TrEMBL record:
Taxonomic placement: Archaea, Methanobacteriati, Methanobacteriota, Stenosarchaea group, Halobacteria
Quaternary structure and partners: Homotrimer.
Gene Ontology MF, one: copper ion binding
Organism for this UniProt entry: Halorubrum cibi
Cofactor: Cu(2+); Cu(+)
Catalytic activity: nitric oxide + Fe(III)-[cytochrome c] + H2O = Fe(II)-[cytochrome c] + nitrite + 2 H(+)
Protein name: Copper-containing nitrite reductase
Amino acid sequence: MPSIDYSSAADVTKRLEERLVESLTGETSVSRRTVLGGLGVAGSAAVGLGSSRAAASSDHDDEGEHGNFGAVGEYQDLDFDPHEFLTAFNTGESGQDNVPQQVYEEDGQTVREFEFTAVDTTITIAPGVEFQAWAYNGQVPGPTIRAVEGDLIRVKFTNLGRHAHTIHPHLKNLNPRMDGIPQNGPGVLDTGESFTYEWIAQPAGTHFYHCHSLPLKEHIHRGLYGTIIVDPDPERVRENPRDYVNYHGPITDDFREQLVEEAKSRNHEYAENDAVNEMVMVMNSFDTNFDGGNEVYAANTRAFAYGIGSTDGTGNWTAGETKRPIQIDKNERQRVYLSNATEFDLINSFHTHSQFFDYYDHGTTLTPTRKTVDTIMQTQAQRGIIELDYSDHEPGLYMFHAHQSEFAELGWMSFFEVV
């Protein structure tokens, strides 16, 4: 049997989402701790672990007011689709419509050029719940950049927001002018100012970029962050295999070829990459009342976006459904480029139900840094690659979520639908 059935999974999503939205849109301002007091019983009941009634608040014991939920909502703002974002890789050759881009050769080097802006905008983080964000190209997380090891990434950046901004890359950057911090190069860019950043795509792995203006915590929390994926160059791997392994034993010819094949599977320019289903997930959070503590958590911004809505139970979802699990082919290798952009909390985490995976911290190695685990933790800006194999699993729903329970109950709860 699958790890959880469709009706129970839908009940989980509905109960937790309604309670979260109620807490954020009600007349009384509440903290996440108070919200969780009302969520605890609801969440456990939905998966058959406790009473079917949910406490109205952490200190209320009126039986008549327990378990009252409003109508479940759908997302009305469709400008950002977390399902489309999962696989939106901007390579210069192809990508998102809101990211002007091109790829060309210059002095014998491949240049991948992108145009970025910083804007003030409003994003939807739960049905009917909006957040005043600062965003790259109008979206949170920002666009995913993808290049090949050794390429030149050129970003033409213009600040259209009301505050000063930069772009700081977590790459091996050899030119301090290009570091995107207030003290170097152009410093912070005021409204209307532009600067062209240039970074060598190195090392191979999955990396992070963000605004480095002060106060740093506000610029990150408001939404100025995203992912840079640097694909390994198989020929570089063949020449220097030790640069890609956390291993000190002999490099045999067979092991070298194994590493080269793995590099091809991670390189979007090779056919071997087509056999892998790749996804980008950015764990993030939102302090909706700006008290220094988050009220909403998510993978890719929208609370419960990968939860369960209306379905016939065989993978066919109601038209217009904005909450649905991530559907994956059980016979296809699954790869998640995961990063943590959460502000105000020391760590975030990723946990799979009924499944174990291999983890590559920062994605800078072609062999796992942690093998056969079901939970990993990340500090802010930490990232890594998760490799999953569902080939021996029955079709159905398999939950994944943060294993800080409060994060899961406040939006960071999701499902894979294995077909």
